[in-house]
């Protein structure tokens, strides 16, 4: 169960691997019961999607859905359960062309705040142990998401570095990604480029100063600090349900579309270092007076 602590040797080996590669896998991190509970909660959320009030915008970090990313629904999602739909699930008239349970690309971004099961897993002693092992001093959970990768229409996640979206200066984002189903190349498993956590963050996703728009802003980076990126070196992480994948905020990662008949449900949340001032340009702005969820403070 999540309350039991991890073996110190496992933490040490995981952290060593992570420091070298920018990613690491801990198989069987969640028990079968925990996976079942999180899946049940996820299924309940899908059943609670109210199609009549949803803005019917799709989620995409690719070009096609860009115009929707900055909308109010997205920016207001930081502390609640909001639904972002697969591109292939909505037609030109904004109507669903598949069952609503199969239409959702992701749910975010406050599951760790409003759902007890996701809160318990995210703020567990085991996660705190890992965050401490990774050297975090005051980790704050910034956002959490369920990504569903629906059968046949599950969208790709283009290559990215999380610190582009979850920016601090210096960058400090760390991702905790949980497989809630077996993930394979055919259902669009996570892939990462080992060692690419040495690649600096070259742009950041910001909220426009007016209205509800977002855009990318370049960051000053010395060209000579950018190592060569060899896209043929991506490593697929084919992992079983219950596995935890740790993702460095600078490491390049991606996943392919799911063209198979199997879904690929995962839960992921990201922490930043609370020691650094929270940046006012970030897309995710906690409402005044509300703090980001703290895991611990050293
Ligand atoms: O699950 C995926 O395919 C991508 C997840 C991701 O980018 C993340 O957790 O940072
Ligand atoms: Fe990511």
In the CATH scheme, the class would be Mainly Beta
What binds here, in terms of ligands, is: 2-oxoglutaric acid, fe (ii) ion
Q: What's the total number of strands?
A: 14
SSE arrangement, N to C: HEHHHEEHHHEEHEEEEEEEEE
| Count of alpha/pi helices | 8
Oligomer: single chain
Helix content: 10-25%
Please compute the radius of gyration using only Cα atoms: 18 Å
Q: Compute the number of structural domains.
A: 1
Structural class of the helix and strand makeup?
Answer: alpha+beta
- Low-pLDDT residue intervals, each spanning 5 or more residues: 61-66
Shape: globular
From the N-terminal CA to the C-terminal CA, the straight-line distance is 25 Å
CATH superfamily: q2cbj1_9rhob like domain
Strand content: 15-25%
Q: Characterize the biggest β-sheet.
A: 8 strands, antiparallel
CATH fold node name: Jelly Rolls
Mean pLDDT: 92
- CATH hierarchy: architecture: Sandwich
Would you spell out the secondary-structure blueprint of this structure?
Blueprint: H1 8-21, E1 23-26, H2 32-47, H3 66-69, H4 72-75, E2 81-85, E3 104-109, H5 111-114, H6 116-122, H7 125-133, E4 139-147, E5 157-160, H8 162-165, E6 174-179, E7 190-192, E8 203-207, E9 214-218, E10 235-236, E11 244-248, E12 253-255, E13 266-273, E14 293-294
Residues 147, 157, 162, 175, 177, 190, 247, 253, 255, 266, 268 line the site of 2-oxoglutaric acid (AKG).
